[in-house]
Records
---
Amino acid sequence: MNRLLRVIVLVVGVSVLPGCARSIYEWGSYEGSIYDLYTDEFNLQRNIDILTREVEKTRDTGGVIPPGKLAHLGYLHSLAGNVDAAVQSFEAEKAAFPESAKFVDFLITRVRATRAGGAGQP
Amino acid sequence: MNGTQLSILAALVIPVSGCLAPVDYSEYLTRFPRSVLVLPPLNDAVEVEAPDMFMSTVTTPLAERGYYVFPIAVVDQVFKDNGVPTPGDMHQVSHGKLREIFGADAALYVVIENWTTQYLVLVTQTTVTIDYRLVDLSSSAVIWHQKQTMVHSSGGGGLAEMLVAAAVDALVKAFVDPYRPLAIQANVTMFNDSHRGLLTGERHPDFEKDLARAKQREAKRVAAAQ
């Protein structure tokens, strides 16, 4: 079993521990992706695909996307050089959580600058 | 991993309870943060991978308490891209600067104080101690400061219990590093502790009810201290 899947199994496992209250958010692989990011086996496109699919599913089923997940996905898009997709995810984070506005605006300016300047990492 | 095995694992993770004197929540109630910036943890433990593992264990329990939690990996990268490469450096950044960049109400400073595993003849014991400090970024007031120690012990009971524990541990190790579930348990237990944990945040459905109760409890504590 690959690492991300192992983490997903773990996260799902922990969330169904007896005695835990019902979750506010649908976490999916958000923290699994954070875990992944700090390993040598991190696969950017796989992470983008999985998180994108989860976000769509949460929206379709009327669930609540957790704080940070869309900004995290936006960051992954920026690493892949997808400026438009990154901005879209950042905007979605801000719409869902106005508390994030200042930081998200900073991230949007930053990722747009990479396209304008065309140099360096986002 | 099935439910029974998980229950057994959960039962083996024991929080080490601290002092029972009522906690002072006056500053917390005054400042009451809506958003929390978790800084990458400082590591005082020998285990070098502890901070990286911890990064993926704190967002879920904190957000489920009702707070907006900034995207921790993105936060980490923004620091690194701006000449602040280590958690030690990040913990030194002024509160005003953190507020200016992130727009956060509060910052959570985490120090991993201990993260060790003892291999004995029939028992493997892992101990994790984490120090948590929640600071209001406008006033620099420390609004919550707690420490949590968790001990995960395999074996130590009767022979049957030991065999079950050994089997469970073998399974967990096959899935992930055994440290991560322990860090998750430490965070969940600490944030949800009814006497010394975090107060229920604004995004939680029980916010109003719990806030009224917290105010009552604080008034009682103040009255008792006089």
---
Amino acid sequence: MKDLKNNGEEGSSRRRFLKRLGIGVGAVSLAGVAGTAIISGKEAKARSGKKVKLLSPDGKLVEVDQDDIKPAKEIVAALKDEARKGLPDRKFAMVIDLAKCKNARKCVEACQEGHMLPKDHEWMKLYLLQDDIHTAKYWFPRPCFHCDKPMCVSVCPVGATFKRADGIVLIDNQRCIGCKFCMTGCPYSARVFNWEDPKVKLPPGHVYDPETNIPAVEGTVGKCIFCADNLRRNELPRCVTACPMGVIYFGDLLEDTVTNGNETVRFSQLMTDRAGYRYREELGTLPSVYYLPPAQRMFPVERGLEGTDESIKGRYKKAGPR
Amino acid sequence: MSVMKKNIISKVLLLSFLLPLSVKAYTQEKTKISPYIQLQYFKDTEDQRVLQTTLSYSKDRMELPLPGMEISFFKGGVTRELISRITTNNKGIARIELGKDLKLPVDRDGMWAFSSEYMGNDTIEAGKSEITIKDVRLEMALTETDSIKTISLKAFIKQNGIIKPVPGEVVKIYVPRMFSLLPIGEVTLDETGTGTLEFPSDLPGDKEGNLTIITKFEENQVFGNVERKVIQKWGVPTEYSVPSSHRALWTKTPPMWMIITLSVLLAGVWGHYLFAIISLIIIRIDAKREAAKGKYKIQK
Amino acid sequence: MEADKKLIKDLTPEIEKTSLKWYITFFIFFAFFAAGIYGLILQIDKGHIVTGMRDNVVWGFYIVNFIFFMGLSYSGALISGVMHLFHTGWRKPVIRMAELITVISLVIGPFFIFFCIGRLDRLYFLFIHPRIQSPITWDVIAICTDLIGCFLYLYLSFIEDFAILRDYADLNVAPWKRKLYKALSLGYSGTERQQKILSNAKTIMAAMIIAIAIIVYSVLAWIFGVTLQPGWHSTIFGPYFVIAAVFSGTGLLIILMWIFRKVYHLEEYITKRHFVNVGVLLTVIAAFYGYFTFSDYLTKWYGSIKMDSILIDKLFSDYYSLFIFANYIGILLPCIIIAFPKFRTIPNITIAAVIAITALWVNRYIIVIPTLETPFLPIQDTRIDWIKYTPTWIEWSLTIAGVSVFAMLFMLISKIAPIISISEMQEKDKNEILK
């Protein structure tokens, strides 16, 4: 059984109710209604008693109190507000075990599926790195590092990307003007740009929420968001659960615990035992993603090239020390 | 007909009879999914007992749930009695609460028997899972002496009014975290059914230092899943807040020196612009006055 | 206001009538402009995928052109401002052209930014949700300030000319032009008091323009300088860009001098002396530019920082010819041509200016693109256009459209106001009479 840190609050807050509405259709019995109106939570207000007939997404005719209908714009504004505040008393971090990664690419696929990304957008990217001819070759999964001193946030002219108190850096695709300054600001090439209309088929009644970042919007920037929508439901990010080797650990640093879905360990213990480090610490951006060095591999690095598509294998032909 | 020919004909007949059958069986195998059904018994810290059945199937070496299937829960072994029928949720799990005071007949080993069954449909085969559970009581005591924190455990069975300890069983201790349970340690109970474990002193708790501690029998062959939970102030108080007024390059409010420098520069520059515009206005006023005086000439 | 009849006769023929050649030239430029607009419509319709920019090289031709045109603008401001403040005698024929370069390229530059922005429909967010910590916000504020300032300064210098034209009865122009001159000259009648006020205002604005030009172009340089990217994270980017801008602007000034001298028969006013003087200015600035470039690349090359070495390797392999052209030929050739008296002819100096301005454009290109092609994490991709930036025909056509618009605007302004400032030239005469 999982212990909810903020139990006892379910259903009482209107915002929490709105949050659940924003995430998925069918989550609530009177689910999202086709068109622009979405039903709000209960409010102590003088009710006019008037009823309105509306069509639900599964084709049922529903009769609803007119007072309960709130325009979608207010919902989106409330969701964006919550998205900027973040989850209280959390500080998220990720630990990636380079000794176990074998380029299975399940993390990439799960991320693309979960966020309805086009196939050539990779928010989680896999590199094959070798710092020097004498040092080890290793597979390097690179999500967004959600830096504590994020260069991308500093240079955004309109505040479309922001860092929240729980450490996650999000993008508001409805504020982004597509100047791409954040992409040149990020030293880790973590951001992708929507050069054309991604043509995403949205579920009915979908409301835009920076924490799901669906849909990708043409002319704006996208990146790994540590699956902020999953975190709000106390679920792990999609790449963590998808990895067959348990390479990615995720957790709250304030609890000093990280888990990869199977193992749960103390973060401080993991760092000291396995000599964890951050990529290019000298850049000073203070990333939230830590790496465990590729020591004592159980299988050779080349195993990662077996069974992969030619188009992906071709990427690593020139991999090696620069 | 010769013997050889008869042999051949009979062999061909046999094959032609078996082949379609095997093909039918093969196609049948291909279309019907063989599910994996698992029945589990849970007793939580308030003695609420729960039976849970997970229905899933294996595809491409990944386990996928089977939602919306009806599971029948039974109590009793040989003579079983239907408790209820529950439909699996979208994670393929069906749960049924049995209540806190469970008075069920025990078999000669002092065990309860439960089973859950899935009847199957056109595409999925039927499946059944059975378990036998002995009702165990798990007690937990937390003591702290000289800043050493100790958890003392005791487990026993009440059989016919007699208390019998359970030696040799493994009890696991966890602290629940946001996504999972953090393992603290394991205790193997001795002959008296007791054990102790030292609890670490450096685990972060919430703002006041509260922690939830769970001790449980986890997937025990005899006892199922039994847990005891308690909230204790054994964690390090942890507070984390970033004030919204924090000034930095990446925050909402910019550093003070930036605002001051920008304001000074802009005021200076636009002040000069104002001066130039005022000069133009003065020229215009002056020119009008000159024109009124009639000093305006047109060059030929 | 009175003016020497000869001056007016020489400097205003193009205001009165338009030749067929003008129309043909204007039409050719307009055709290029139309092709660019067609490309722009395609880009807005299909998305930025039609350009050569991809996830690594996110800034391509458009940003290069933006920096280039802003550079021309600021150099125009610097040159005209400095010339005005130092009362250099020989400046008079060319100062108007410098002011016009300032304003026209300042109007064109921001359009290239617009082409680069993914969501043009949200451009106004820059004004309603600005973040002061972002160098782009600094740039927006700076460009707006600069636009107002340069327009003010240009207008201040035009007032006297408009007054002269308004009062010149023999001027054979359409009535709407006359009305325009009357309105824009604010009734200026050249009295002592008015002259003093105007002169004060011009001096103050000239000083402001110089300060603004330096600040604004430094802010543009810091858009690159404050990032962590190898090649961009250089401490001298601010002054380096300012010097490069003045270099390109001076080159453009020479080219325009040559064009207008030929087309409007102004051989009497723009003499070899002017070419030589501006040419010497070009040489001096070329020397400074060469010094900054050398200093920047020497420190990158000498140190062993890996990312710097990778960038230098790329510059000397993939971009070798462009690098040599921009940083060697572009500096040395103008210097040689102008340094030796034997080579100092008007056509040669103009050729030197053309080389200088082209080299400057290429210099911008090899500042922006090679850095984006060598990020910290290596580009591991199979698609060639994600590894190496290749501009598409749309980017080329919009670049040429930008140049065409520049030419067209210049041609249009020459129909309304004289290319050489009549009032400035008059001042010279007055001084000579006083002597």
